[in-house]
Description:
Elements lengths: L1 E11 L2 E7 L16 H9 L9 E7 L17 E6 L4 E6 L13 H12 L10 E7 L9 H14 L8 E4 L5 E6 L2 E5 L22 E5 L2 E9 L3 E6 L2 H6 L17 H11 L9 E9 L2 E8 L3 E3 L3 H13 L6 E6 L2 E7 L6 E6 L1 E11 H7 L6 E3 L2
Parallel strand pairs: 2-3, 6-7, 12-13, 14-16
Antiparallel strand pairs: 1-2, 1-19, 3-6, 4-5, 7-8, 8-9, 9-18, 10-11, 11-12, 13-14, 14-15, 16-17, 17-18, 19-20
Amino acid sequence: MKALLPFSKYHGLGNDFVLLDARELARDASLLRLLDCWPLVVARLCDRNFGVGADGVILCIPLPLKGGDMLLRAPLKQAVMKPQKRGTGDYPVRHDRDEPERFQAPSAWKDYERAMEKLTGAYPDRDQCELAWLYTNSDGSPADMCGNGLRCLAAWAKDNLCLAENTGLKIATARGPVAAAFDGSLIEVDIGKPVLDAASIPVSVSVSEPVGVTLAAGGREYKVTAVGMGNPHCVIFGPDQLDEYLKGYEAPEPGGAADFFPESLKEAARAIQAHEMFPESVNVEFVRIRSRQSVDVLVYERGCGPTLACASGAAAVVVAGVLGDSLDRRVSVRLPGGELTVSYSADDEHVRIKGAACEVFSGVVRLDLGGLVANGQHSATEVPLS
């Protein structure tokens, strides 16, 4: 099965994502089959040579599921399909879309509803939310939390759904609803309370709160703090390699995320991720404290590797700093991609992250489902929309 799938590309401080409107899967019953091999679909979309290129994929699921008539700010217009030869086979071609103003429920809508119910039905308090998500890392592995991804999803909703101006919204996740608020060009998300119980992070150590634990990895010892933000984090303050490297923050060279990461820290991060202390691997944060209100951070993400920014990692750094009495509860976190403001409230113990997120471009990607299932290979070409 060959298909054309519309997408949008968003980024939060250089942490980039492919966003897919889940309702597009209901336009053709066969498109729902993509969910059966979703890790392969995600890995191909995130490939920076053969796909769109991203740190992860967000499936955007407007709520409620029933009826399919969510009003759109930019109308999702009816597609007219016809076959056309395009290099590797016959692909349907979208002739866009001049009406209607409401999404027209296709014959596949019931199948879509069942599929989305299966994905999101167990999300706590889902009915209180305007949309839900499914987030997947670039290697196809699932994750419950991504702070930059949530801000990008909120930006997508503001751009595409009929929301009251600047009123905010709630996003259903496996951890529970996440509130998103708009402040001009900035978006703040409330990602709830951190997880500090070792077994729930998860961390395999014989302490209830793994703060200041010594870990030996890659021939070196590190003093680490483990924090759960819906995903596991390992925070390391002040490794020697960081000071010399972080001079590059003043005038960073152009290039991909990997160029911002010294090889010595990559090797350390990979060794820590493979350590038995972290049975589900871990996101690794290397931190230089500039003051009690300001830090520099490099993040080696689980399932992604070096990234220009990681908002849940920034949140974990602030929580770890508060626990160790080295940071205040409101901190500017500087990452290679830009700055985030992270607040860890003493009142409700919630962590809130504020920063920018915006659309980069939109297009249509060609997918060969048969090729994906057969060997994980397919042709993927971004085709800009007129």
